[in-house]
Design brief:
single chain; 79 residues; mainly alpha; 3 helices; elongated
């Protein structure tokens, strides 16, 4: 099942511009969160940014998961 989801994600990242944008932004959030995690001392602004990034990343993940489910559902109803 996870492999099928990965396949659908690859298809959508090529065929669906909005999905591709979500995926790229998700990776950008992950990279910035990794940078923040490497800091020895975190400022209040860093903490606020970290919370914002985590919320955004989760939102994007939910959006992508919904799109994957919609794609899978459309393929099973047409099969």
């Amino acid at each position: 099942m996870a492999e099928q989801t990965n396949d659908v994600q690859r298809i959508l990242s090529v065929e669906d511009e909005e999905f591709r944008h979500w995926l790229e932004e998700h990776h950008t959030c992950e990279a910035r969160l990794a940078e923040l995690a490497q800091k020895q001392e975190i400022s209040i602004d860093d903490e606020i940014e970290e919370k914002r990034l985590k919320k955004r990343k989760l939102f994007l993940k939910d959006q992508m998961a919904a799109r994957v489910r919609g794609y899978e559902d459309s393929r099973t109803t047409h099969a």
